[in-house]
Amino acid sequence: MALTKRDQEIWMEIKEWEAEMKASEPTDFETYYDRWIENMFTLLPESTQQEFFSKMDNWLFHLHSMIHESQFQLDARNRILTNARVFDENISTLKDLKELSIDQLAYIAEQQVARHRMYSLVQGGISAVNGGLALAADLPAQMVINLRSIQLIGISYGFEMNTPYEIMLSLKVFHAGTMPERMQKYFWETLMEDLDHPPSYFYEGEDELSNVFWFDQPIKQMMKVMAIYFFRKKVFKGIPILSMAIGSGANYRLTKKVTDFADKFYKYRYLSEKVNP
Questions:
Q1: CB atoms closer than 10 angstroms to residue 244
Q2: Among 242, 252, 265, 236, which Cα is nearest to 151's?
Q3: What is the pTM (predicted TM-score) of this model?
Q4: Which one of 22, 159, 197, 238 has the fewest CB atoms closer than 10 angstroms to its CB?
Q5: Residue 205: is its pLDDT beyond 70?
């Protein structure tokens, strides 16, 4: 099926974003920081590293499945179909969504994006205000919010999220989206290689997700927690405003980065499959 004029405009926007991403180079500080993380992790035996990353990947896979099978997610899936019927009353399955225009699908996806960015903003503020267990649960909560948002973005563009292939692909999108922007180009290329092969029920590509550089996010989380505790005594009417702003702002920025990356990926995939069904 040929791309419409609007499809071509969106395609070019993604290609321009891709070119800018590939052209970006890390600063001297970022290069030093990346080497520091890599050197710190190499102090561990290789077998320990492999075991840790394997357990992390398994945990992410099971977390993804739990989110997808939850009633909360099923309700969101049904809402997406209901919203799509505003544009075409004959839509009954996710496959039917691909009959809508790219702007209509983007509108549906944007509703999910906006909702999850708000979840992230509120969750970060609550964690910062309450501290203790709420702050300890902040990183797992962020992973749930961002994994869920990626699933719903994919669903909004007409892709099921319940096969091993789709689960692995969405986890790769999650992993890439949480990476520092200077590294996202490498993971984007890996995703493009996956799309070069026809989708199947089982995933047949490289199935390792976690690596040393993913620890950039936990390190940022530790720095955020330290900043939150440092400013907890700066209160206004009993509310630690600065701590709340730090928690909310950091979580919002992470979800914005993840959802921006996921939206571009699933837009690209939708358009590429439209050209080569």
A1: 21
A2: 265
A3: 0.89
A4: 238
A5: no
